[in-house]
Structure formats: structure tokens, C-alpha cells
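Hello Y.,

Per our agreement to keep a running log of every chain we model this quarter, I'm adding this entry. I've kept the format consistent with earlier entries: sequence first, then predicted structure.
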Amino acid sequence: MATAVFSNPKFSPTVTTTTSSKTHFYHYRTHSLLHAKIQAFQAASLKFNPNPLNKKPQIVSCRGSDREPPAPAKVRRPEYVPNRIADPNYVRIFDTTLRDGEQSPGASLTSKEKLDIARQLSKLGVDIIEAGFPAASKDDFEAVRMIAKEVGNAVDADGYVPVICGLSRCNENDVRTAWEAVKYAKRPRIHTFIATSPIHMEYKLRKSKEQVIGIARNMVKFARSLGCDDVEFSPEDAGRSEREFLYQILGEVIKAGATTLNIPDTVGYTVPKEFGQLIADIKANTPGIENVIISTHCQNDLGLSTANTLAGACAGARQLEVTINGIGERAGNASLEEVVMTIKCRGEHELGGLHTGINTRHISMTSTMVEEYTGLHVQPHKAIVGADGMLKHKGTYEIISPEDIGFERTNEAGIVLGKLSGRHALRRRLQELGYELEDEQLESIFWRFKAVAEQKKRVTDADLRALVSDEVFQPEVVWKLLDLQVTCGTLGLSTATVKLVDADGREHVACSVGTGPVDSAYKAVDLIVKEPVTLLEYSMNAVTEGIDAIATTRVVIRGENSHAPTNASTGERVSRTFSGIGAGMDIVVSSVKAYIGALNKMLGFKDRSLTNASEERIPVSA
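Predicted structure for the entry above:
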């Protein structure tokens, strides 16, 4: 392996290029998540789910036979009733990717992207989709309402339809706005919250305990008075709140009509034994607790969100709040795929028979969609969905079959696509990979596929995923790349000529020079678009081995004149960032596509801001 370091005036960070026998990966910033140690969780699970028969431990794999992966089991999903679950071992999965997950830096999502992700979450089978924070902005309100109308009414053959939830602070305007957005769903829910820790009540709310209890009680009553029969209440920063006060305020909101009590570790401060005991104590000491569902929401500041969530489930929580890929504010949230697959693998033998209604074969597709839309790269060693989880000798260390999460090994796919493959073969393979595409989308990808197949003997699944990402996972088009020509080398300045097409079909051409082909091409794009931006991140990697591999590029930009939202915790205005992705066998073309994608997303937000000058986005960690 060889490593070289370059400096480029266009890109302020240092660029490190690492070359190995399989991949070429260019990165500006590598995110590393500290995962919970399995010993910590085992200690918590033993406390709350002891083995009364003192049986010897068994090594259990969720893979099944090496020769034949097990068929997916029929989902055992009890009838939905807001405040109770008929099956005591069933755990509801509450996904907050579209609300808490979108608070990750650079993860701004358009309304179309939110709707696409909500549709995919429904395919995944999550019980509740927290679609957003309707009172935060007009755009958030419209996105939540759109999801409620479409996804919240898409009932499948088994009667499943996800609950559509909107977040609100404990004030009448927020609660009413949340209801106006979610009321179109068959199963609407309002999730309201207020801080309960001493430090938050004193310095953030400046209110007494009695005042906080009164506000919480009145807002839950108000939500029920609007016609909402499904109300969730969260005592923000519960992990640092006084226990007796927690029991008191939770008992009051139960009497007021709350159906779910969410216990958040807002700052990711607790450890599994501690958080599990918190849930157990709440279950044992809160009056009326038998009439509601207990939920968990664990942040990952100490890398313990998954372990804390599972400890909470062992202690009696029957709703678990998670995000795809564990994205979220600061260090992120409990990861849906980690929590769900732990329950799938160990639930029957070690977790007292816990199970979920998740169709795990949609995990890989959902993870990819969130990764591409948010621009938040999943590190290769990420549990469950990371690329390095695939082993050649799968019988040795692999405890989860890739097929269980909807990921097939290329060398086991059975179908080899090449330049003679037709639309039917391409559609079939894409369907096997989890992609259900419209005819127009398939046609665009087909011709991209043909172009790649002319240059490669064999088109792999990784190539297909890259093409789908480049064609499907894109924002609404404001500018589109038509032609690109670059000249570069050691004999002079690099030059680029770029031709773009605007939304009205008019062509625009510009030329520029730069320190390299990407720099000169980006400067040419800037001359056409005329929107001052700062490039914050740029990364590129080859999706397969070989010199003919497709390159995927991700960029993150910040507009100098973009609308700055306000952080509710600090009161400071923070700059919004926008990500873009591109793919192609030419690395400069791939880079320009990614840059234009980020610009299109930024311009889409700018247009909506102009129609709603008072828009203010308020990140909240409930």
C-alpha cells in the first residue's frame, strides 16, 4: 500500500490518496464511530433477563446453513393499538432518520428525497416514521404532510401501514402545526417534548418543576383535544433528570392521555447498566405505566447507543427509536440495522424472545438510499452495512448472511450482465438488488449501463448500484451537465470547458483554468451558475477493483449567501451545508456531476427560502 499527500488551493483540507490492490480512495475527512462493546450489553442483559435454568451458553448464528440461506420468516406483527401491544415480546421500531437523522452536518434533504426515504422505510416495515418537525419551517411542514398523505395511507395486503409522527415542542403552535401535518395519515401521531433535567430547566427553560409539569400535562391534553389518539411524550435529557421528578411528570402526562413515553438519553451520557436500570425504575415506579408503551431514544456520544437501546428493551421498553446508519446530531443515534439484527440474531435465545416486524432484506437498500441522499459515507467497517463485512470464507467468522439484509455477493449472483444484456435482464437484476424503478428511470440507467458494458467485460452489482445512485438518488434538476472537456498535465495550467443545460433547456458554456482538472472544471461551473460556494469536503472511491472501475464522488458545499438556521440549544445561527454525489468511469465527469448535484440541492432550498422568508429550522434532540 502506498500513501501520498497532495495540496490543492481549491480544496483547503489536505488530500490523502491511498492505493491498494483493490481500491483507490481519496478522502478529506474520515468519520469513525465508537461502537458499544458486547460485554457491556451482556452485563446489562444478564441483569434484566437472567437465565433461570443456568443453561450453558450456546453459539447461535443467524446465518442458517452455509449451503442454503433460510427463507425469510413471516413477520409476526400484532394489530396496532397506540398504548398497548398484544404480543409482550414484540418491539416497535420507531425510525427518526427524517427528523433527528437530518440534523447531521451536510444531511439536508429535499422534500422529494424525504418522500423517497419514507417509502423505503415503509418497505422495510418500520412501525413508526417520525417524518419531521413541522413547526420548524414551511418546507418541513409540507414534507411531513406529503408523507402522511402518501406513505401514511399505503396499506399493504396484510393491513400494515406505518404510523406517521410529527415532533413538536410543548407549546400550542407547535402541537397544532404537527397535527395539521400528520392528520392525513391513517395512523397519525404527535410527539411532544420538554426538558426535565435540573440544568435544562434552570438555564434553558428558566422554569420550576411545577411549571414544567403543568406545561407537559396541558400540551398532551391539547394534542388529544385536536383529535389525535396517539400522543408520545418525551422528557428531554431524562438520563440526567431526578428520578422522583421523572415518575411524577410521566404519571401526569399518562393521566392527560399520553400513549407512549419516550425516555431519551439526549446527551449520550449513560452506560447500558445505568440506562437499563432507568427503564426498570420507571416501569416500577410510575403510576399508570401499565397503560402506555415505554420507548427509548439513545444518542451515541460515548458510542453506547445500540447497547443502551438493547438494555432498555431488556428492561421493558417496547418501542426503540433509531436511525438508518446511525446518523444524527453530534455522534448520531442508535443504528436501526444494529438494533434490529441484534434482536434477530440473539432475541430468541438471549433477549427473552424479543422480535420486530422489520423485513431485514430491505436494510441494505435503505442504507444505500440514506447514504446517497445525505452524502454521509458509511465507513467500511460499519457493523451490518459496512462494505468490509463481506468475507470470502463465510463459514469462519460471519454470523449474519448478507442475503438477510438484502445484499448479494457478486460472485454468487447467478446473472452476469454484459454488453449483450437487454432491458429485461437489467430490470430483473435491479429488482433482485432491491430497486423498483419506473420505466423512465430504467431507460436512463439502461443506456448508462450499455456505455459501461462497452468498456468492461462484466458489469458488477457494485457498478449497477453506482449507476442507480447517479440516476435516481439526485435532487430536482436546476442545472445538468451536457459536455465536459479538460486538458491537464505537467506542461501547463489545466483548462476545462463545461456546457450546462438549465431548467428551461438553454445551454450555457464557460471555460476556466485551474490547478488541476477538477479545480478548473469546478471554476467553469461557477462561472455559469454564479452562486458563491465553499467546498467543504471531496471524496472519491472506486466501486470495484480494476483500472476500468466506476468512480463515485461525494462533495459537501456551503453557500455563502445561503439561509442560516438557528440551533435551539445554543441560539446560534449555523450554516446549512449541501451534499452531492456523482458516478462515472471518468473521474472528472464523476466529480463535476457530484458538484452540480450539491449546487442543485442548494438552489432548491434557496428557492423555497425566497417564498418563505421567515423560515427558521430548529434542530432538536428529543
